């Protein structure tokens, strides 16, 4: 089953969708598919890490990361399917960040890698939008926590409905053109390890979301106002959002 | 006015706080400070400033940054007044950080420095514990150092902004088992509150309940199981915390 959240008569409402039924995506106002804390795993893509091999051993990093590198996508970044991603008015380039999202199903404190998947409810699609990832030294609040920089959805698919979450193709389209293809088999740290590691010092709650890993952000993933970006993940679906200049959104809201 | 939240019969309950610092329910019932189960006083995004006092920067052998060095914590790390924080086994250095916490009172986007204080609803005390053993040079300070379960006591209550005459002239003090270990003043903030509100609201929308931990002055020291740590901010509050061992913490998980 697929689990969405929609806005119905102004109220956030859960909507279960049978995957065998064709869904008219324009008929709903989709909310972010999850409501909890959103953690991202940076530097968790093989090609991205290979590109950093030299930098890992130079200042300011000095050594390669010993543990998964984590960041937080604050609540203001979360948007649903079809909502607009605001691009900075000064024209700074923004990049799509296609990733599998791991949705936590029950409270998890210090769970082992062996048991970690028992705490996962399912999977969703995340577009972890970012300014250029020029540096991994300091927390990337400015690059990653702008309003609308984390589309999530359109739904959470039950984990039972996905046979191998570490072998899912991920395709990114900009204006209907396929610009990027990867797979969850390109993750450096696997799903069970990620869940176990986070829970080793942070209690995860039902509804928390972990962005498994985003690829190297080349110009192929660059977005500009007027674009439509869509991420498709096998067995989950398609997450589509437009890109607009931020100031236009503010004016519309002030309307 | 002082506002707090306590756990009462399993329910998160809003209270006011009287001059004895006891919790007062909506119906006037008083729950003594020592008996109340204090919870973090609000929910929201958790911003923390690193190296935001020049003396602390020198202590860490850093130059004060050119722009605010902000990191985020997740809500798992928050803990109320008078609770236990665990020190992991086999670490060399875990220290407190006494901080003034400014709390956003209304939605803020692209707010100028001139108007920024209108968006502050109140203040509380934060203790931003860090375990230095876990520092790595990736998104430093990383979540394993700073966003750990039990590692961010906050409270006991929020003081209304109107009741704090000058948030940029408050003494901060930390005591370990009654001994004064850390002392500084918010007048030495590198980036003051209006600057931080402008900076953050230029990046993103701030909402009521969002917390800005404004950083800590010099005077850090290691803490050990059994220690009572008191962080206080003049005119705002006094936040008590107890350090326990990891094995004692594991027993509480059941």
Automatic annotation (TrEMBL), chain A:
Q: Which UniProt keywords apply?
A: Isomerase, Metal-binding
Q: Which GO terms describe its biological process?
A: small molecule metabolic process
A single GO molecular function, which one?
A: 5-carboxymethyl-2-hydroxymuconate delta-isomerase activity
Top-level taxon of origin: Bacteria
Q: Matching InterPro entries, A to Z? A: FAH, Fumarylacetoacetase-like_C, Fumarylacetoacetase_C_sf, HPA_isomer/decarb_N
Q: Where is the Fumarylacetoacetase-like C-terminal domain?
A: 37-244
Q: Which family does it belong to?
A: Belongs to the FAH family.
Spell out the protein name for this chain: 4-hydroxyphenylacetate isomerase
Automatic annotation (TrEMBL), chain B:
Named in its record, the pathway it takes part in is: Aromatic compound metabolism; 4-hydroxyphenylacetate degradation; pyruvate and succinate semialdehyde from 4-hydroxyphenylacetate: step 4/7; Aromatic compound metabolism; 4-hydroxyphenylacetate degradation; pyruvate and succinate semialdehyde from 4-hydroxyphenylacetate: step 5/7
Which reactions fall under this protein's catalytic activity?
Answer: (2E,4Z)-5-hydroxypenta-2,4-diene-1,2,5-tricarboxylate = (3E,5R)-5-carboxy-2-oxohept-3-enedioate; (3E,5R)-5-carboxy-2-oxohept-3-enedioate + H(+) = (4Z)-2-oxohept-4-enedioate + CO2
What biological processes does GO assign it? Answer: 4-hydroxyphenylacetate catabolic process
User: What superkingdom heads the lineage?
Assistant: Bacteria
Gene Ontology molecular function: any one: metal ion binding
What family is this? Answer: Belongs to the FAH family.
Free-text function comment from the UniProt entry: Decarboxylates OPET (5-oxo-pent-3-ene-1,2,5-tricarboxylic acid) into HHDD (2-hydroxy-hept-2,4-diene-1,7-dioate) and isomerizes it to OHED (2-oxo-hept-3-ene-1,7-dioate).
Name of this protein: 2-hydroxyhepta-2,4-diene-1,7-dioate isomerase
């Amino acid at each position: 089953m697929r689990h969405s959240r929609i806005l119905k008569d102004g109220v956030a409402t859960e909507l279960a969708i049978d995957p065998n039924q064709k869904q008219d995506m324009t008929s709903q106002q989709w909310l972010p598919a999850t409501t909890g804390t959103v953690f991202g795993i940076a530097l968790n893509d093989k090609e991205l890490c290979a590109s950093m091999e030299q930098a890992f051993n130079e200042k300011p990093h000095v050594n390669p990361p010993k543990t998964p590198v984590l960041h937080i996508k604050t609540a203001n970044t979360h948007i649903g399917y079809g909502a607009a991603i605001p691009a900075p008015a000064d024209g700074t380039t923004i990049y799509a960040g296609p990733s599998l999202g791991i949705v936590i199903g029950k409270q998890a404190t210090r769970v082992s890698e062996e048991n970690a998947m028992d705490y996962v409810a399912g999977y969703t699609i995340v577009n972890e939008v970012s300014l250029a990832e020029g540096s991994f030294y300091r927390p990337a609040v400015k690059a990653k926590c702008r309003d609308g920089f984390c589309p999530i959805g359109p739904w959470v698919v039950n984990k039972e409905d996905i046979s191998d979450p570490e072998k899912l193709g991920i395709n990114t389209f900009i204006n209907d053109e396929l610009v990027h293809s990867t797979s969850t088999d390109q993750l450096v740290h696997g799903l069970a390890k990620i869940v176990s590691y986070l829970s080793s010092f942070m209690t995860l709650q039902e509804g928390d979301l972990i962005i498994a890993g985003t690829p190297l952000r080349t110009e192929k993933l660059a977005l500009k106002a007027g674009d439509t970006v869509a991420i498709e993940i096998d067995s989950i679906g398609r997450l589509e959002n437009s890109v607009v200049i931020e100031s236009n959104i503010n004016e519309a809201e002030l309307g | 006015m002082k506002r707090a939240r306590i756990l009462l019969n399993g329910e998160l309950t809003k209270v006011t706080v009287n001059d004895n610092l006891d919790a007062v329910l909506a119906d006037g019932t008083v729950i003594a400070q020592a008996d109340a189960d204090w919870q973090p006083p609000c929910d929201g995004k958790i911003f923390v400033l690193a190296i935001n006092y020049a003396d602390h920067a020198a202590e860490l052998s850093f130059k004060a940054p050119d722009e605010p060095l902000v990191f985020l914590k997740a809500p798992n790390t928050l803990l109320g007044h008078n609770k236990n924080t665990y020190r992991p086994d086999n670490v060399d250095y875990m220290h407190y950080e006494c901080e003034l916490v400014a709390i956003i009172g209304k939605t803020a986007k692209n707010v100028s420095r001139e108007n920024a204080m209108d968006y502050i609803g109140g203040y509380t005390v934060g203790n931003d514990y860090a375990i230095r053993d876990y520092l790595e040079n990736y998104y430093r300070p990383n979540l394993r150092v700073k966003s750990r379960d039990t590692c961010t006591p906050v409270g006991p209550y929020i003081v209304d902004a109107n009741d704090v005459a000058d948030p940029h002239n408050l003494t901060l003090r930390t005591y370990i088992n009654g001994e004064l270990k850390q002392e500084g003043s918010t007048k030495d903030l590198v980036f003051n509150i209006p600057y931080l509100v402008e900076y953050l609201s230029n990046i993103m929308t701030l909402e009521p309940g969002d917390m800005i931990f404004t950083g800590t002055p010099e005077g850090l020291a290691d803490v050990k199981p059994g220690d009572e740590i008191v962080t206080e901010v003049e005119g705002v509050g006094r936040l008590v915390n107890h350090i326990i061992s990891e094995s004692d913490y594991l027993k509480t998980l059941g």
